[in-house]
Amino acid sequence: MKIAFVGDVHGRVLHALGAVLMVQARRRLRLDAVVQVGDLGAFPSADRFDGSSRRFHADNPAQGDFFRLLDPSPQVGAGVRAALEQLPQVLFLSGNHEDHEWLGSLHDAAGAEVVPVDPLGAFHHVVCGHVTEVAGARTAFLGLIEAPGKMDFDEAAYARLLAAEPGSVDVLVTHDGPHGMSRSRRGDVQGSARLSRLIEHLQPRLHVGGHYHHANGPRHYGRTESHALAQLVDPKLDRWQPEPVNPEQRITAGSIGVLDTETYAFEYVHDDWLAEVRGDDVDLAGIAALTGPRDGTSGSDAGQWS
User: Which pairs with CB-CB distance under 8 Å and at least 24 residues apart come from 215-224?
Assistant: First the structure.
């Protein structure tokens, strides 16, 4: 079975669905699950943005596509429905740029650990600490980041996973990455020491995260192979670069990875055709028309979560 993992989206949900459609069609795969590693950009309205999201949205209008998903126009609705005829629903966990209070209220209202966040059911949020089977792989989810004084992992969720038997989880999906995975432009060591301890204890076969906006892996922690995904779409402007970085809003190579749960081979997608998904207004219906149905099986039939 095949799982596609998607890096930080920051609101560009139409890019995300379009890119996964392209991966499935161009790689001639049948995806059994799609998992997004946090920073989907799940806010109920722009006035709930955190400061960083608000600043980036000003220069990157597609970061507001999540709002179009919440109140879809006929065009957007048609595109999302067409995508879901070919794809399973997307599971995502909390990054550090979501409205955590709003997401929590959805879980409270539903009394469930996995809940849809949009009326079309394209994206389903998973609470921290939840463990479930995803495409035949026992999968644990731990969102948020280790940032003392700003944000930290959900303590109860972290404790539950730390108490689980080593080897009881096949895949660990997080937003943060393990300590020492890389360095920032300023030379600071990146990653979470607490997450490193969790990986060393759980020893899943695979760990996948995001947050740092660049592809990084494989790294090995005992039997665990660890990967970080690039940001799905780099912003148009970067304060570190004098010239526009991604004015056409193209998909970033290494922002999507595919796992084969039979062999546990993980592959980053670097193909040039990923960049065909681009622009401030992605034509998702057009992409879905080009990629076509997958063996007559709808996403709603293929993606059922507990």
Answer: 215/253, 215/254, 215/255, 215/268, 216/177, 216/181, 216/182, 217/266, 217/268, 218/266, 219/178, 219/181, 221/178, 221/196, 224/172, 224/199
